[in-house]
Amino acid sequence: MSTLTMGSLFDGIGGFPLAAERYDIKPLWASEIEPFPMEVTKHRFPSMVHGGDITKLKGAELIPVDIICGGSPCQDLSVAGARAGLAGARSGLFMEQIRVVKEMRQAEKERGRTGVDIRPRYMVWENVPGAFSSGEPKGEDFRIVLEEIVHVSCPSAYVNHWFSYGWQQAGNIYVGREFSLAWRCLDAQYWGVAQRRKRIFLVADFAGPTAPFLLFDALPKQEVDDET
Q1: 56: helix, strand or coil
Q2: Helix-strand-coil split of the chain, %, nearest 5
Q3: Each residue's pLDDT tens digit, 58-67
């Protein structure tokens, strides 16, 4: 089996590349604009290519990877911020993350790759729990996040507001056996860090049903509507 590869968007000081290397996943490139974090990752991961500003990346020109990771800026989603949501200049960069993934997968199709061989197959997104309640109506931003990720593989699918009382701390989506997505809110205090820091972690499998198994034992299926 060949080694899995990863690209890191909104890389910071290389948290996702560090985790990847510990599990024998090779980080090939990163996108970051802040000088100091870039110097840290150049020191820690000297072979990793730096692509710079995500808004200037062209997915078709990036080195193909199996996994795309990224925690798009959270300031507009945080309960401590102005709550501008995905309409904010910073948290709205999530849409750039989706654009890059779509462009990469389209380029792979044009190279003749199909099904599970289209890269990236997996996407990992990390963000603050404020995303569960941001937007109007309450929680609309998280619904948009889910729907935009689903659309990478299933453009006609629609994600509903499932819970009138708010989004659950963990959940999943399947579209047949073509796509799966799972999210889970984790607290750093239970993972060897001496502070309480909750974050949403979301995994998407653009070609199969494996996403929930990467985060937890599979929950009961929640199908989404497909207009086709």
Answers
A1: helix
A2: 35, 20, 45
A3: 999 999 999 9
Which regions of the chain are under pLDDT 70? 1, 74-92, 162-165, 217-228
The tens digit of pLDDT for each residue in 111-142 reads: 999 999 999 999 999 999 988 988 888 888 89
Q: Given 69, 74, 154, 185, which residue is catalytic?
A: 74
Q: What are phi and psi of 151, to 5 degrees?
A: -65, -20
7 close to 120: Cβ distance less than 8 angstroms? yes
pTM to 2 decimal places? 0.88
Write phi, then psi, for 114 (nearest 5 degrees): -140, 160
Provide the b/e sequence for 70-104 (b: ≥16 CB within 10 Å).
bbbbbbbbbeebebbbbebeebebbebbbbbbbbb
- Return the H-helix or E-strand segment holding 187: strand 179-187
For residues 119 and 64, is the Cβ–Cβ distance under 8 A?
Answer: yes
Tell me the sheet residues that pair with 173.
Answer: 181
Q: Is 74 one of the catalytic residues?
A: yes
Phi, psi torsion values for 23, nearest 5 degrees: -115, 30
Q: How far is CA 12 from CA 40, 73, 100, 122, in A?
A: 9, 10, 18, 20
CA 78, chain centre distance (Å): 17
**Residue where the block lists tokens 């109007």:** 136
Per-residue three-class SS string for 69-120? EECCCCCCCCCCCCCCHHHCCCHHHHHHHHHHHHHHHHHHHHCCCCHHHCCC
Instruction: Identify the residue whose tokens are 């453009």.
Output: 155
